[in-house]
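Quiz preparation item.
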């Protein structure tokens, strides 16, 4: 029974670590996406003002 508990604890640790890594990677990709959107909008406004 002690070995079974150790195995279950190991799988739970791996599962929780995987969830944490996934959440962190998704948050960093969202931050990069929003900053790219801001740059794109500034560039398009600049080009519109330049053409006028």
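Solution:
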């Amino acid at each position: 029974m002690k070995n079974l508990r150790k195995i279950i604890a190991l799988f739970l640790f791996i599962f929780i670590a995987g969830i944490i890594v996934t959440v962190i990677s998704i948050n960093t990709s969202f931050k990069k996406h929003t900053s790219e959107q801001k740059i794109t909008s500034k560039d398009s406004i600049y080009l519109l003002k330049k053409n006028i």
